[in-house]
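Aim 2, interim progress: modelling of the NAP-bound target.
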Amino acid sequence: MNITFCCTDMKAEPWLVGLRAALPQAKVSEWHPGAPQADHAVVWAPPQRFVDEQRGLKAMFNTGAGVDALLKLRLPPSIQIVRLDDAGMAVQMAEYVCHAVIRYFREFDVYDADVAQGQWALRKPRVRKEFPVGVMGLGVLGERVSRALRQFEFPVRGWSRSPRSLEGVACYAGPSAFRTFLSSSRVLVNLLPLTLDTSNILNHDTLSLLRPGAYVINVARGAHLVDDDLLALLDSGHLAGATLDVFRTEPLPAAHPFWAHPKITITPHTSARTLREESIAQIAGKILAFERGEPVGGLVDVARGY
Ligand SMILES: NC(=O)c1ccc[n+]([C@@H]2O[C@H](COP(=O)([O-])OP(=O)(O)OC[C@H]3O[C@@H](n4cnc5c(N)ncnc54)[C@H](OP(=O)(O)O)[C@@H]3O)[C@@H](O)[C@H]2O)c1
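Predicted structure of the complex, ligand included:
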């Protein structure tokens, strides 16, 4: 069995070493133009040339949860695409989102500003039931994040494409429930995949429906958010703050207004990192299951876009 590795922005060698150790029966090598045909590929945002040359692939294993970069390519109709399921990302996402929600709820952002001015000033505690958190996307990551938020007793709402049921979470599904979901949320957490249906979904119309003084936490993809609409709603005071981990252009260009905006906190796409060891173990297990003809978790529905 031949496995080819083609991940942009990743050092190949440690992955090759890890994949060879996990799959000693396989020949694992890094792809280069003109490389021999492989049976399976381990990929992250490969170039179109990779897909055009590797016509014999049975499956591509994406080293992340989001497959939007892969689905932009012209892919052969027969190819199976498999995404990472959690592989250590869900707990990181839960940490990141809980940290951001708690920071806003407890007003640690305001205390930081006070302390920087040498001010010892107590603020009136906020009421938890007036701080409902809406989680867009109740998949592998959204579900874990919702459970973590429940641990802190925040009222949690969730929105997905198909109906879901999660203990302690008010679940909404589909476009018809979207307005109700938004208007009942004080904090909006985006954990949707980027698809034709979800691109630009965080825009002036939708964000205006959030409760006044709302907060936005975008940890999914930059193209979900219309940047200028967010800035206008922060400047009008309808939104109180935003924590952004993902951007339309990454790295975020130096001149982008998000960098210096007092109500925006940015991080460099680090909310849930691909962990190499966990990912290699999961991908190796899936390749073996695939070869045995067993069902493989995390198969992407290309038509649906995630
Ligand atoms: N910032 C980072 O470091 C980072 C790291 C990893 C992932 N991500 C992003 O997080 C995203 C989510 O990951 P995941 O593993 O949780 O994905 P997932 O398991 O595929 O879950 C996606 C969820 O979104 C819902 N959804 C999809 N399209 C929708 C629509 N049009 N309307 C309403 N709901 C819709 C799905 O609904 P159903 O339940 O009905 O299918 C599902 O609940 C990834 O696609 C990626 O872009 C970011």
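The chain has a mean pLDDT of 98. Residues 64-66, 89, 137-142, 159-162, 164, 191-195, 197-198, 219-221, 245-246, 269, 271-272, 306 surround NAP (CB under 6 Å).
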